[in-house]
Amino acid sequence: MKQIVPSFFSSSSLLIYRLLAIFLCISPTQSTFSVKIGNDVLSQICAQTEDRNSCLKALQSNPRTASTDLYGLAQISINLANATASETRTKIKSKLGQTTDPNLYDQYLKCLESYVNAVSKINYANGRWSIKDFLALEAAASDCLIEINTCKGVTTPAWPFLPQQNDKSHLLCNIMSTVAKRLAAGNN
């Protein structure tokens, strides 16, 4: 009889430890991010931006969007924002050398600085994404929006690309911010 009791407690203890290990391995963050997002979630996210249709078009332009979760969507939005802001920064830098008007030069230089800062904020956001610091990711996306807004007032017929690029960059940083807010809130 004495052997049955210790054996029973050993089996029970082993079962409890196994169940505990399973529950510890399945964290709430893993379950939140592993759910594939659908068109309804994309529509909800894009409805919170300044241009719902352009938002949907931008996100759906990436083939990974159809099969990703919210965490993956954050990475997609970071990549899109980085590509567009980097492209704009490069265009401004190349055009800056062609500007002879000192007043315009100062405006464009300010714009260039804003885009250098915006790209820096996006890169910081990417680092925060990788360690799942969604509040810092959201803050970096908001800072990106502020930097882009600094350049939005600069318009000239000589640089017709700039308003479009500003709008596109602003939208993509807005998407990044919106996705980060959902992640920080634990919504998927």
UniProtKB/TrEMBL annotation:
It comes from Quercus rubra (Northern red oak). This is Pectinesterase inhibitor domain-containing protein. Gene3D superfamilies: Invertase/pectin methylesterase inhibitor family protein. Coiled coil: none annotated. InterPro entries: Invertase/methylesterase_inhib (IPR035513), PCW_Enzyme_Inhibitor (IPR052421), Pectinesterase_inhib_dom (IPR006501), PMEI_plant (IPR034086). Pfam families: PMEI. Belongs to the PMEI family. GO terms for molecular function: pectinesterase inhibitor activity. Keywords: Disulfide bond, Signal. The keyword Ribosomal protein does not apply. Residues 1-31 form the signal peptide. Residues 37-179 form the Pectinesterase inhibitor domain.
